[in-house]
Amino acid sequence: EIVMTQSPATLSVSPGERATLSCRASQSVSSNLAWYQQKPGQAPRLLIYGASTRATGIPARFSGSGSGTEFTLTISSLQSEDFAVYYCQQYNNWYTFGQGTKLEIK
Amino acid sequence: EVQLVQSGAEVKKPGESLRISCKGSGYSFTSYWITWVRQMPGKGLEWIGRIDPSDSYTNYSPSFHGHVTISTDKSSGTAYLQWSSLEASDTAMYYCARHYPWDLVLVYWGQGTLVTVSP
């Protein structure tokens, strides 16, 4: 089973600033890496797939990068609605999720 | 419009059986795998397994294999997740999801079904 490790567990950032979230895979997942956003009481929402492709309707301030085992989600200028929990997921070999990064207001 | 609509919240006792559902609409149901995901209270997302509705072929996470069963009814466009004997540790939100036509990433999600197992 591929293990996905996200860091940090919690990230405190002020609105308007940049946030950088990391995700590491225990073995290569190529570019089969997705990022999801989840707000309380809601289902996860797909943000990024193929490591760097924004899903339909996702604002340009969200960007993803990486391949193999190291991946990054960057939110360039945080808006109030961006404070949530973010999960990475590999889908190269079935599916595995990271444990999540909580993005909170500083 | 693609939609996945899940059945309502359930409250059960340990040892009871349960089947929850996920009805797909707005697309050809047999053309896309349905995936089930668990989220325990205050915790992260866990992949349970998936099913190909065209032939009912299933894959399960080792963590869930033998404890749950995934099935479908092609005629009604519905996928199911069932337990024969619930445990308190099955208390969680359960989501069904579907992938893109061109990629296996999970893009469409149901609203979730909350299962509570308590004596």
UniProtKB/TrEMBL annotation, chain A:
Keywords associated with the record: Adaptive immunity, Immunity, Immunoglobulin, Immunoglobulin domain
InterPro entries xref list: Ig-like_dom, Ig-like_dom_sf, Ig-like_fold, Ig_sub, Ig_V-set, IgV_Light_Chain
Entry superkingdom: Eukaryota
SMART domains: IG, IGv
PROSITE patterns: IG_LIKE (PS50835)
Domain Ig-like: 1-89
Matches recorded under Pfam families: V-set (PF07686)
GO biological process annotation, one example: adaptive immune response
GO cellular component terms, A-Z: extracellular region; immunoglobulin complex; plasma membrane
Quaternary structure note: Immunoglobulins are composed of two identical heavy chains and two identical light chains; disulfide-linked.
UniProt protein name: IG c1182_light_IGKV3-15_IGKJ2
Source organism (scientific name): Homo sapiens (Human)
